[in-house]
Design brief:
about 110 residues, alpha+beta, three-stranded antiparallel β-sheet, 3 helices, 3 strands, rod-shaped
Length: about 110
């Protein structure tokens, strides 16, 4: 990420129609002669950059958690396939085996 003047930045009204964007620390003007909406957008840039960086980290964490869940589901599916394919009379109710077979069929059809 490139270096930029740290925030907070703020938008100032220079005249009736002209706005500028300045850095709070030293009142250094980074842009001028713009509309109010543009000045506010530029002034919000450092905060938006920080939020995007936070969201990126959250997304990466979510992706890692999702990958772990998918790996666990593959293991559960394999176990379920083994239990359904190996006869174990009396161990599972017939309706439970039927539901398990139906779930495995869904997985196999969609996978």
């Amino acid at each position: 990420m490139s270096k930029h003047t740290p925030g907070p930045w703020r938008a100032l009204n220079d005249s009736r129609e002209d706005w500028s964007c300045v850095v709070n620390r030293h009142d250094y003007t980074i842009a001028r002669g713009m509309k109010a909406a543009d000045a506010r957008l530029i002034a919000a840039a450092p905060e938006m950059l920080e939020e995007i960086a936070r969201l990126k980290l959250q997304y990466q964490s979510s992706q890692e958690a999702l990958t772990e869940c998918q790996e666990e589901l593959v293991g559960v599916t394999d176990l379920l396939r083994d239990l359904v394919s190996t006869p174990r009379r009396g161990l599972f109710p017939a309706d439970a085996l039927k539901r398990a077979r139906a779930l495995l069929a869904k997985v196999d059809d969609n996978g």
